[in-house]
Design goal:
The chain has 8 helices and 8 strands, in the order βαβαβαβαβαβαββαα. By secondary structure, it is of the alpha/beta class.
Length: 261
């Protein structure tokens, strides 16, 4: 399904370098482009993913926009070495954001202190380069908000990736100059965010897939891909009472406001 020949949809968070796309990566990206998704923002995980991201950019230079960062689940004993890699790459070339960064207490609570340290360091790098941050938060809203509060300034802005919190947490995220990244979860029966999203002005929303994860209905449980973002567009159009073209245009403009392109 393609919305319109002039429609531009932006996927603000997609792991196109994932090994899950090894067999059909180019075809999968082309499916998305054919569906109107012409802008893909690529979050980093750690130094092991960097070269694969550069290869993607080389293959699709008009469509791929890279971030750099250390994912909280990859904050291990060598995190300072990983942060040095982020710092060196930032000094060497252009990126469009610092991400994905944040705190994840679902997988490992024992690394909370170093996760916080890595999060703060990367926020400070983002401020230095005047770049947005893209936040990963899982079972850690209080901890993430604590760090954001300590770093609050006009230079702090970005996206709360895969937002799945409450209405009150949405307002709190927005208060830190964050857009809400909305993806497949909004289509889930138990996703809950669809129940209050209309109360959030559309100017605070960007679209994402987080592919290959969190595929929307009717693909839930299968490999996600960027072309499936049209299902998220359709759900948001239903929630906001707008056309799919209006949702696509507004959210793409919001992504331009965040990433500067």
């Amino acid at each position: 399904m393609r919305l319109n020949s002039t429609t531009i949809i932006t996927d603000t968070h997609t792991h196109l370098y994932s090994e899950e796309f090894a067999e059909d990566r180019n075809e999968m990206i082309q499916r998305a482009i054919n569906a109107g998704v012409s802008r893909f923002f690529i979050p980093a995980i750690d130094s092991a993913t960097t070269q694969a991201m550069y290869n993607l950019e080389q293959d699709f230079p008009e469509n791929i926009f890279l971030m750099i960062g250390l994912h909280p689940t990859h904050v291990k004993e060598n995190f300072e070495e990983e942060l040095n890699h982020v710092t060196k790459e930032l000094a060497r070339r252009k990126f469009y954001g610092i991400g994905e960064i944040g705190i994840d207490l679902y997988w490992d609570k024992t690394t909370l202190d170093i996760q916080k340290a890595a999060f703060k360091t990367q926020i400070q790098l983002a401020k230095h380069y005047k770049l947005p941050i893209v936040i990963h938060c899982r079972d850690a809203f209080d901890e993430v908000f604590e760090v954001l509060e300590s770093e609050k300034s006009t230079d702090l802005f970005g996206i709360f990736h895969c937002f799945s919190g409450t209405y009150e947490q949405a307002l709190q995220a927005i208060s830190y100059n964050m857009k809400l990244g909305i993806g497949g979860v909004v289509t889930f029966k138990n996703g809950k965010i669809d129940q209050f999203l209309k109360q959030i002005d559309l100017c605070h929303i960007v679209l994402e897939t987080d592919s290959p994860y969190l595929a929307p209905v009717p693909f839930r449980g299968k490999r996600n891909e960027s072309s499936y973002i049209v299902n998220v567009v359709a759900k948001l159009a239903e929630i906001y009472g707008l056309s799919e073209m209006e949702i696509s245009a507004a959210t793409t403009q919001n992504s331009k406001d965040v990433f500067g392109i």
